[in-house]
Amino acid sequence: MDIALLVLGFLLTLVGILGSFLPVIPGPPLSWVGLLLLYLTKAVPEDWTVLGISLGVAVLVLVMDYVIPALGTKKFGGTRAGMAGSVVGLIVAITFPVLGIFGIVVWPFFGALVGELLNNGDRKTAFRAAFGSLMGFLTGTLMKFTVTVAFFGLYVIKVWEYKEALLPFLFES
Q: Which residues cross the membrane (predicted)?
């Protein structure tokens, strides 16, 4: 059973890293579940403090991933209409992943642009706000990638620390 948990946990941490770039895969939560599975093995002692803190980080990053593009829109001069357009574009990208990874970039940008154009019609302001949405998306992606790689690193460190208990068949004489 421990081997199954170990392999599944490893795969989830890797899929979590991919999920930091792919819109339909929630990267940080999946990576966290991979960590949880590792801690559920008999070989690795339970550490609810590490799991609790890492869960808090995963949830915070998940929430911030939706908030940051809207904040980027506002920071670059966008109005509520641009922020709302950015959020609508993000929802469209997640709901209809037709364009794949590019859709998660294009739709919030397009949503912020349309929201600003409908609000005041000034192209320069609209493009600045849409650029802010793009910068927010890139910031969120970098944040998710950093967290998922850190979770993967923690996973590898724990496996290395308890390797003889987790993988006894590799260390038999």
A: 50-71, 83-110, 130-157
Domain count, the chain: 1
Residue-number span of the structural domain to which 146 is assigned: 2-166
As a whole number of angstroms, the distance between CA 111 and CA 92 comes to 9
Q: Tell me how far apart the alpha carbons of residues 116 and 83 are, in angstroms, rounded to a whole number.
A: 9
In a domain, 20, yes or no: yes
Residues 133-137 have a mean pLDDT of 80
Chain center to CA of 52: 18
CA gap 20, 16 in Å, rounded: 7
pLDDT tens by residue, 159-168:
998 888 877 7
CA distance 96 to 94: 6
The alpha carbon of residue 74 and the mean position of all alpha carbons in its chain are separated, in whole angstroms, by 22
pTM for the full model? Answer: 0.79
Question: Quick one: CA torsion of 24, 99, 129, 75, rounded to 10 degrees?
Answer: 20
Per-residue burial over 144-158, b = 16 or more CB atoms within 10 Å of its CB, e = otherwise: bbebbeebbebbeeb
